[in-house]
């Protein structure tokens, strides 16, 4: 069974919370709030952690670096398990149904005029790529960007 990952801001809190949660949880400390880090060093302006936001600013390259770091961390299995599988569950249940089972794991997001996906695509050869796609267009949040997101995933799968 996969363990749940809980991130808190201090080592002391992590130790205390871990006592209450037990062995089915991994509790780690971020050593402070991400939003407290200087934008000049982090390069990310965080409004909230829930996804796309008019006041949160991050580039596709910055997001891909964050995802790559998470993929290479010791918490990767728990993190990857939180992503919907294309054609199977979550916000991807009805999207990218022709992708091989388990090969495309993406989070989706929409705002007025913006559509985004971010996550991982694993080829038949076993190589995993980070995919981040943000589309800005007046019709993007009405489904117009979905074929582009799907084409990018298909292209990665076809070019291992």
Explain what this protein looks like in three dimensions.
The protein has 160 residues and is an alpha+beta fold. It has a domain at 58-158: 3-Layer(aba) Sandwich (Beta-lactamase), CATH 3.40.710. It has 5 helices and 5 strands, in the order E-H-E-H-H-H-E-E-E-H. The protein has a 3-stranded antiparallel beta sheet, sandwiched between helices. A two-stranded parallel sheet has the order 1-2. Strand 4 and strand 5 form a beta hairpin. 15% of the residues are buried.
Jot down its keywords:
5 strands; about 30% helix; Beta-lactamase; two-stranded parallel sheet; about 160 residues; globular
Please state the average pLDDT score: 81
SSE order in H/E notation? Answer: EHEHHHEEEH
For the sheet with most strands, the description reads:
3 strands, antiparallel
The strand line-up of the biggest sheet is 3-4-5
Q: What is the name of the CATH topology of the domain at 58-158? A: Beta-lactamase
Number of strands: 5
Structure class:
alpha+beta
What coarse outline follows from CA principal-axis ratios?
Answer: globular
Q: Looking at this structure, what is the CATH superfamily of the domain at 58-158? A: DD-peptidase/beta-lactamase superfamily
Low-confidence stretches: none
